[in-house]
Structure formats: C-alpha cells, structure tokens
Amino acid sequence: MTEILIDHVVKDFEIDRRSVRAIDDISLTFPSGSFSALIGPSGCGKSTLLRLVADILAPTTGTIRVGGLPPGEARLRHEIGFVFQDASLLPWRTVLENIQLPLEVAGGPIGDGPRPENLIRLVGLSGFENAKPAQLSGGMQQRVSIARALTLRPKVLLLDEPFGALDEITRQRMNMELLRIWQETGTTAILVTHTIGEAVFMADRVHVLAAHPGRLVTSIEVDLPRPRELAMLQTPAFNHFENAVRAALFGDELKAVAGG
Ligand SMILES: Nc1ncnc2c1ncn2[C@@H]1O[C@H](COP(=O)(O)OP(=O)(O)OP(=O)(O)O)[C@@H](O)[C@H]1O
Ligand SMILES: [Mg+2]
Known about the structure:
There is one protein chain. This protein has helices at 46-53, 71-76, 95-106, 116-122, 138-150, 168-185, 196-202, 236-250, 252-259; strands spanning 4-15, 18-30, 35-39, 61-66, 80-83, 156-160, 188-192, 205-210, 215-221. With 260 residues, it is of the alpha/beta class. The protein has a single domain, classed as 3-Layer(aba) Sandwich (Rossmann fold). The strands form two sheets. The chain has a six-stranded mixed β-sheet with strand order 5-6-7-3-8-9, with helices on both faces. It has a three-stranded antiparallel β-sheet with strand order 2-1-4, with helices on one face. Strand 6, helix 6 (168-185) and strand 7 (188-192) form a beta-alpha-beta unit. Helix 7 packs across helix 8 (236-250). The longest helix has 18 residues, at 168-185. The mean pLDDT is 92. Magnesium ion binds at residues 46-47. Magnesium ion is lined by residues 46-47.
C-alpha cells in the first residue's frame, strides 16, 4: 500500500538573490493505487511538486511521506518511477539497454522485478528491442521511458506531461495504454497535464493549482466508471467534469465572459 501524503508543504527558490515561493502551503493526499492528475497554468509548481515527491528537491517546510517513508528513503528502496516531459533516453543505447539502465545503476535486479522483455511487451514495443532511440517515433520513445520507469517495479509512478509533444490521436492511444499499464501494475500514479480532457479521462481525482505562488485551488473527484473508454469522451457526465475543472482553472475570468 503506497499512499502519498503532502502536508503543508512550502517550497521557496532563490532566483537572482530573490526568494520565489513556488509552492505555498499545499496539502494533498494521493490514495494508494489511485490515479491523480495535477493541472494548472505554467509556473504553478506542478513539476516542483513531483520533484519533491521524487526526492529530486527538498521542501522548504512541511512534510512528505511516500508509503509512510520520507521521499529519500522511498527513492533508495526504488519505490518511485519518474517519466519526464522529454523521453531523455541515452541515444547510443538500444531500447533494451535503455530499459535495463536502472538495473545497472541499482547494481542488479531488485527482488522479483519484471523482466525487461516483459516490460517491452507491456509498452507494445516487441520487435524494437535493438532499435536506437533516433529510430523511434516520439510516442515510441516515451513508451521506452515508461518501461524504464517501471523497471524496478516502483509503487509510485510520477508522470510529468509525458505525452505533451504528441499529436492528439497518438496521445489518446498512449493514454489508454498508460491506464492499462497502471491497472496491471497497481501503482499510485500522479500525472501532470495541461489538458482538461486528459486530466478528466485519466484520473480519479483532478487537483487544480494556481500560480504565483503555486497553490491548490480545489480537488475534483471524477466519478466515471473504469475502465475508461473512448466513448465516454462524448457523454454528458464527462462534459460535466470538464466544465468543473475549467471553472476552477479560470475562476472569475470565466464568469466575466459568460456574464458579459
Ligand atoms: N530549480 C529551480 N530554481 C529556481 N526556481 C525554480 C526551479 N524550478 C522551478 N522554479 C520556479 O518555481 C516555479 C514553479 O515551477 P514549475 O516548474 O514547478 O512549474 P510548472 O507548473 O511545472 O510549469 P510548466 O507547466 O510550465 O511546466 C516557477 O516560478 C519557477 O521559476
Ligand atoms: Mg512543469
């Protein structure tokens, strides 16, 4: 069971000898095995929040727990997988060698981690084991990076706009695949996205953030059945949740437009 707890977290950065508050007292709970989305304008602290959970950054004040552990400890136990906006693969390594990289860094297999061949199958890249990243499409590269993030069987999967650079059709396919993988692996997933429809389609709960300083506006429960199907995109229920997220994102701006 791996619940993620963010308790009154503040993160300040020093920029040009000025202190900038990137995260202003955010408290959030991500239930074990849930799929959550973070959405909000550029600079509202979404990436910072993921980096805090992954122990790439430390909070200025406040507490974070990953399955009851401080993030540093969870990281040492290989419980956190991270997928970045760009696939960030090593260009001189093949697909298989990129996926195996975390094993090498960790100094060998951890427990009963999944075999690289199975991961390649899981992300639909069978037959491309020996291809180099440059020989793959952007979506295929991102799938390699998802497989790499899953190599050490993390209990937590952090995804920072993993499909931001892809066209809408490919993106929707990748999202369906991501949901399938998430359900198969039982991880606690947090997805950062700029797209309202994507947040609603993927998540059990959408957390809406605002910028300067980065803070939580509201959290919206998405009460749509699983597995999520493409046909849901056109239902009134889906539309209802999209509108709720949009209203939270735009706040008074939206009211002004509607009224005027
Ligand atoms: N390493 C850093 N050093 C200094 N300031 C930083 C650093 N990382 C982020 N910030 C600041 O923190 C704030 C939040 O940045 P963050 O990258 O988390 O935003 P974001 O929500 O991910 O935005 P985007 O949607 O554009 O990716 C910004 O004001 C940014 O300038
Ligand atoms: Mg970001």
